[in-house]
Amino acid sequence: QVQLVESGGGLVQPGGSLRLSCAVSGRDFSINAIGWYRRAPGKERELVATITTGGGATYADSVKGRFTISRDNAKSTVVLQMNTLAPEDTAVYYCGARVRSGVTIYDAWGQGTQVTVSS
Fold first, then answer.
1. Backbone phi, then psi, for 95, in 5-degree steps?
2. Measured distance CA(95)–CA(78) in Å, rounded
3. How distant is the alpha carbon of residue 79 from its chain centre?
4. pLDDT digits 0-9 by tens, 28-59
5. SS3 of 106, please?
Protein backbone atom coordinates (compact mmCIF):
# COMPACT_ATOMS: atom_id res chain seq x y z
CA GLN A 1 0.00 0.00 0.00
CA VAL A 2 1.20 3.47 -0.86
CA GLN A 3 -0.25 6.91 -0.30
CA LEU A 4 0.55 10.10 -2.18
CA VAL A 5 -0.45 13.45 -0.73
CA GLU A 6 0.01 16.72 -2.62
CA SER A 7 0.31 20.17 -1.12
CA GLY A 8 1.31 23.68 -2.13
CA GLY A 9 -1.35 24.66 -4.63
CA GLY A 10 -3.12 27.98 -4.59
CA LEU A 11 -3.76 31.25 -6.39
CA VAL A 12 -0.85 33.09 -7.96
CA GLN A 13 -0.49 36.01 -10.38
CA PRO A 14 0.95 35.54 -13.86
CA GLY A 15 4.72 35.49 -13.69
CA GLY A 16 4.68 34.22 -10.14
CA SER A 17 5.91 30.97 -8.63
CA LEU A 18 4.58 28.06 -6.64
CA ARG A 19 6.16 24.96 -5.17
CA LEU A 20 4.20 21.73 -5.03
CA SER A 21 5.16 18.86 -2.76
CA CYS A 22 4.21 15.20 -2.89
CA ALA A 23 4.67 13.13 0.25
CA VAL A 24 4.95 9.38 -0.25
CA SER A 25 4.18 6.90 2.49
CA GLY A 26 3.46 3.21 2.81
CA ARG A 27 5.01 -0.14 3.54
CA ASP A 28 6.70 -2.90 1.54
CA PHE A 29 6.85 -1.18 -1.82
CA SER A 30 9.23 0.38 -4.29
CA ILE A 31 8.71 3.14 -6.84
CA ASN A 32 10.12 2.88 -10.33
CA ALA A 33 9.18 6.41 -11.33
CA ILE A 34 7.20 9.31 -9.94
CA GLY A 35 5.98 12.54 -11.40
CA TRP A 36 3.47 15.32 -11.76
CA TYR A 37 0.48 15.46 -14.06
CA ARG A 38 -2.23 18.04 -14.55
CA ARG A 39 -5.79 18.27 -15.79
CA ALA A 40 -7.41 21.50 -16.91
CA PRO A 41 -11.22 21.74 -17.06
CA GLY A 42 -12.57 19.92 -20.08
CA LYS A 43 -9.17 18.54 -21.07
CA GLU A 44 -7.31 15.26 -20.75
CA ARG A 45 -4.77 14.75 -18.03
CA GLU A 46 -1.27 15.44 -19.31
CA LEU A 47 2.24 14.76 -18.12
CA VAL A 48 4.12 17.69 -16.60
CA ALA A 49 7.35 16.14 -15.32
CA THR A 50 8.67 12.78 -14.16
CA ILE A 51 11.74 11.67 -12.26
CA THR A 52 13.33 8.28 -11.68
CA THR A 53 14.87 6.97 -8.49
CA GLY A 54 18.29 7.85 -9.86
CA GLY A 55 17.25 11.44 -10.50
CA GLY A 56 16.74 11.46 -14.25
CA ALA A 57 14.01 13.94 -15.19
CA THR A 58 11.75 14.58 -18.17
CA TYR A 59 9.47 17.53 -18.86
CA ALA A 60 6.61 18.44 -21.10
CA ASP A 61 7.66 20.92 -23.77
CA SER A 62 5.24 23.48 -22.40
CA VAL A 63 7.02 23.67 -19.04
CA LYS A 64 10.68 23.23 -20.00
CA GLY A 65 12.79 26.02 -18.60
CA ARG A 66 10.08 27.05 -16.14
CA PHE A 67 9.41 23.98 -13.98
CA THR A 68 11.89 21.84 -12.09
CA ILE A 69 11.20 18.45 -10.52
CA SER A 70 13.34 17.06 -7.72
CA ARG A 71 13.25 14.06 -5.42
CA ASP A 72 14.47 13.53 -1.89
CA ASN A 73 14.49 9.79 -1.26
CA ALA A 74 15.48 10.19 2.38
CA LYS A 75 12.46 12.40 3.02
CA SER A 76 10.16 10.49 0.65
CA THR A 77 9.18 13.74 -1.01
CA VAL A 78 8.95 14.92 -4.61
CA VAL A 79 8.86 18.64 -5.35
CA LEU A 80 7.75 20.56 -8.41
CA GLN A 81 9.08 24.11 -8.49
CA MET A 82 6.98 26.18 -10.90
CA ASN A 83 8.26 29.56 -12.08
CA THR A 84 7.01 32.13 -14.56
CA LEU A 85 3.50 30.79 -14.26
CA ALA A 86 0.90 31.67 -16.88
CA PRO A 87 -2.90 31.34 -16.97
CA GLU A 88 -2.47 28.30 -19.22
CA ASP A 89 -0.89 26.50 -16.27
CA THR A 90 -4.17 26.61 -14.36
CA ALA A 91 -5.18 23.03 -13.56
CA VAL A 92 -5.46 20.41 -10.89
CA TYR A 93 -2.01 18.96 -10.40
CA TYR A 94 -1.64 15.31 -9.44
CA CYS A 95 1.27 13.33 -8.11
CA GLY A 96 1.49 9.86 -9.63
CA ALA A 97 3.84 6.93 -9.22
CA ARG A 98 4.46 3.51 -10.71
CA VAL A 99 4.60 1.22 -7.71
CA ARG A 100 5.80 -2.33 -7.23
CA SER A 101 4.57 -4.32 -4.26
CA GLY A 102 5.72 -7.91 -4.36
CA VAL A 103 4.89 -9.13 -7.86
CA THR A 104 2.18 -6.51 -8.38
CA ILE A 105 2.83 -3.34 -10.35
CA TYR A 106 0.29 -0.55 -10.31
CA ASP A 107 -0.08 3.20 -10.65
CA ALA A 108 -0.89 5.24 -7.56
CA TRP A 109 -2.30 8.76 -7.58
CA GLY A 110 -2.80 11.55 -5.12
CA GLN A 111 -6.07 13.44 -4.94
CA GLY A 112 -4.66 16.57 -6.54
CA THR A 113 -4.03 20.18 -5.64
CA GLN A 114 -5.53 23.17 -7.44
CA VAL A 115 -3.25 25.70 -9.11
CA THR A 116 -4.88 28.88 -10.39
CA VAL A 117 -2.91 31.54 -12.26
CA SER A 118 -4.91 34.73 -12.61
CA SER A 119 -4.65 38.48 -12.29
1. -95, 130
2. 9
3. 7
4. 999 888 999 999 989 999 999 999 877 899 99
5. strand
